[in-house]
Amino acid sequence: MVRPLLDYPSRRRLDACINISDIRDAAKRRAHKMVFDYLDAGADDEITIRRNKDAYSQLELHYRILAGLSPPLDMSTRVMGRDVQIPFFTSPTAGSKMFHADGEVGVARAAASHGAMYSLSTMGTAAPAEVAAALPTHHPKLFQLYVWKDRSLVRDMLAQARENGFHALALTVDLTWYGNRERDSRNGFTVPPNYTLRQTYEALKRPAWTWDFLSKPEYAYAAVDLAAEGRTRRAREGTRGETRESDEAFPTVSFFLFSSYGQLE
Questions:
Q1: Most confident stretch, 63-67, 68-72, 168-172
Q2: 135 close to 110: Cβ distance less than 8 angstroms
Q3: Could you tell me the residue range of the domain that residue 92 belongs to?
Q4: What confidence category does residue 264 fall into, taking pLDDT thresholds of 50, 70 and 90?
Q5: How many helices (H) and strands (E) in the chain?
């Protein structure tokens, strides 16, 4: 009974949202400040993130008249070789359970309900198997990968994704340089959070988020933890883990200039 009561104001705000800006504001009022800013911020003066947003305002949609169209419109297309109902998809986001207790599984359910491709971050708080269980069997799934120097760890991450039906792979290519995320520094952002007086005060201001955080198991980077367990097991067995299956190619590989930690300005 506690969570529905604490979450009632947040749900009222969400029900009243009419655009993306409203949804952002609703999230800001529910989430702990350092958690929201981690999700919302860019690096340094955040010039790049503002330009990314402004770029959409430069696009023009030209409607077709006398074309015999009527709602609902068909927006279906193909993304990375798979049929989808809408021409965009959620970005792979690290640590989704920081923002909401449903985490990556909640986002996967939303993607399934709208026929959108789902994408999972290497640093997700749900493993590929958990996400796959929340999606229809052949639902389009993309796995985002950091190519670490530890190739054994990378191999295990790929194996998890492939075994759970992820058909596409996105490589993040700028992880060698971390962005200077000033909001994180000002907020004292850490994983897991430090129980400082300041963080406790911010938590008291966000009771629904705080209840989720305290009442749920501590979140962890699930796929990374499983891969690390595999590495430990192989070390005991004296093997490296290469198999024909582990080296099979993904059907689709894309190179993204993703910057989970913000861009240099």
A1: 168-172
A2: no
A3: 31-58+84-256
A4: very low
A5: 12, 6
Number of residues that make up the chain = 265
Q: What is the pTM of this model?
A: 0.84
Q: What is the CATH number of the domain that holds 181?
A: 3.20.20.70
Between residues 121 and 229, the one the model is more confident about: 121
Number of domains in the chain: 1
Q: Would you state the structure tokens that stand for residue 223, as one six-digit string?
A: 């796929």
DSSP conformation letters of 100-119: -TTHHHHHHHHHHHHTPPEE
> Which tokens go with 260?
């989970």
Q: What is the pLDDT of residues 159-204, one digit of tens each?
A: 889 999 999 988 887 776 778 899 999 999 987 788 899 999 999 9
Residue 9 lies in a domain: no
Instruction: Give the C-alpha separation, 73 to 94, whole Å.
Output: 33
188 in a domain, yes or no? yes
Q: Which residues pair with 124 in a beta bridge?
A: none
Q: Report DSSP letters for 200-259, one per residue.
A: HHHHHT-HHHHHHHHHSPPP--HHHHHHHHHHHHHHHHT-----TGGGPPPSEEEEE---
Provide the β-strand partners of residue 144. Answer: 170
Question: Using alpha carbons only, what angle is made at residue 178 by residues 174 and 183, rounded to the nearest 5 degrees?
Answer: 130
Extract the runs of DSSP E, i.e. beta strands, from 121-180: 141-146, 168-172
Mean pLDDT, rounded, for 82-93: 92
